[in-house]
Amino acid sequence: MRIVIVDWIxxxxxxxxxxxxxxxxxxxxxxxxxWRLARMAMIAIxxxxxxxxxxxxxxxxxxPTTTAxxxxxxxxxxxxxxxxxxxxxxxxxxxxxxxxAILGSSTIPAPTIFIVLFMVFVALTAxxxxxxxxxxxxxxxxxxxxxxASGIVSMIMASQAMAPHFRSMTKFWVFYPFMLIxxxxxxxxxxxxxxxxxxx
Length: 200
Fold this sequence. Notes:
Elements: H1 2-14, H2 17-33, H3 38-56, H4 64-82, H5 86-103, H6 110-130, H7 132-157, H8 163-169, H9 175-197
């Protein structure tokens, strides 16, 4: 997971202003209208997960591009086939991976960890199933926030005047999490307000 995050940061720092602008625009769509486009948004998120996994796990014989396209297509197909269950299952997987990241380095026996992870997955998926709109709001806001933060970084790094000042700020470990949390929270509040106004 850490390798994927580092690779993503290196990519957005080199992407340039045009890619950055496209990411901000895509992030705004996720952040503002994610719950209304939940089915399409989930397929897109699954595709992005597949692409990321394909790049990270690409064998040398195939290369990252081929593997990313194949993995993105397969995982997007999985998201499409899950239909209304795509968001709850994804929420369960993300929560389980978070717990795994915490317990993986502990001294707890492996069988106990697997049991805990299974229980967490079932509990989170069941909770997400009970409120699918809120689940779609949280997931799409997170993805939208990620794209907006990434796009802003790309545009700043493309500026010779602003890039040195930006690099000095990234020395603080809270900088990237703060850049991600702010648009994500804004997206959650805006989408929940929109859904409530529409009686959902």
